[in-house]
Amino acid sequence: MEKIGRNDPCWCGSGKKYKTCHMATDDKIRHYELQGHIVPDRDILKTREQIEGIRASSVINIAVLDAVGKMIGPGVSTWEIDELVHDMTVQMGGVPAPLGYEGFPKSVCTSINEVVCHGIPSKDVILKEGDIVNVDVSTLYKGYFSDSSRMYCIGEVSEEKKKLVEVTRECMEKGIAMVQPWNFLGDMAQAVNDHAKANGYSIVVEIGGHGIGLEFHEEPFVSYVTSAGTEMLMVPGMVFTIEPMVNMGSSEIFTDKNDGWTVYTKDKKPSAQWEVTVAVTENGHEVLTW
């Protein structure tokens, strides 16, 4: 880290002197770094102004998912969901972040049953009784990104699928509870993974969460299969997603070779995912999207 004098302006742009702003935090980070832990660079840490921007983006994100919940059901096409997400996001002054991202063709991801993630909406994909579907909404608003997803049970769903959806949400909640300053991302990961395994499920290894805010995907990569006491130190100002992908069967996955996006479970058993954007605060955490 760049050396800053005690009475110099703080690097975060608050206008305060360094000694009354981030000096104590930086000293603590350095202490962990000297012990060999992975610590965040300053560009990973968001200022209060930036978190406020992410919070404003999250308002749109949550409103869109609320609207999806009111219209979704048997007979609805994933193309209709995409239209709603696109139009409502734009009407509220935002931009659907997935549209055009690395070539993704739609404004939202809709992942049904054995689709783990990145399902592409289509007029030909009609939701039917008994389906479970993840709708993943990502929003850009005035330069700030937010990201969240919810599971929806379509009509009468089997007890087996219903349990998967409920346990996956519990996994996310157990992860959220571990978001505390000076914990490690591995603490959160182990809480998630332990709960999934206790219920006979597995966690996808290759795809995880990510930092977010100024870009759609930032450092760090957030795994849900690592051990407590490992991975990056959680520091106030970090903002990242918690989004475990929980499989009913094996954790093995594959990507559709035709569209290059849609990820499936290898054994064709169902998968579920819930996602929130969370900020590490001085005393705990703030869930920005729910």
TrEMBL record:
It catalyses: Release of N-terminal amino acids, preferentially methionine, from peptides and arylamides. It comes from the Bacteria. One of its GO terms (molecular function) is metalloaminopeptidase activity. Gene3D superfamilies: 3.10.450.50, Creatinase/methionine aminopeptidase superfamily (3.90.230.10). Keywords: Aminopeptidase, Hydrolase, Metal-binding, Protease. Binds 2 divalent metal cations per subunit. Has a high-affinity and a low affinity metal-binding site. The true nature of the physiological cofactor is under debate. The enzyme is active with cobalt, zinc, manganese or divalent iron ions. Most likely, methionine aminopeptidases function as mononuclear Fe(2+)-metalloproteases under physiological conditions, and the catalytically relevant metal-binding site has been assigned to the histidine-containing high-affinity site. InterPro entries: Creatinase/aminopeptidase-like (IPR036005), Pept_M24 (IPR000994), Pept_M24_MAP (IPR001714), Pept_M24A_MAP1 (IPR002467), SEC_C_motif (IPR004027). It holds the Pfam family Peptidase_M24. SUPFAM superfamilies: Creatinase/aminopeptidase, Sec-C motif. Its EC number is 3.4.11.18. Its cofactor is Co(2+); Zn(2+); Mn(2+); Fe(2+). A divalent metal cation 1 binds at D136, D147, E275. A divalent metal cation 2 binds at D147, H210, E243, E275. It is an enzyme of class 3 (hydrolase). Residues 52-282 form the Peptidase M24 domain. GO terms for biological process: proteolysis. NCBIfam families: met_pdase_I, PRK12318.1. PANTHER family: METHIONINE AMINOPEPTIDASE (PTHR43330), METHIONINE AMINOPEPTIDASE 1D, MITOCHONDRIAL (PTHR43330:SF8). Belongs to the peptidase M24A family. Methionine aminopeptidase type 1 subfamily. This is Methionine aminopeptidase. It comes from Parablautia intestinalis.
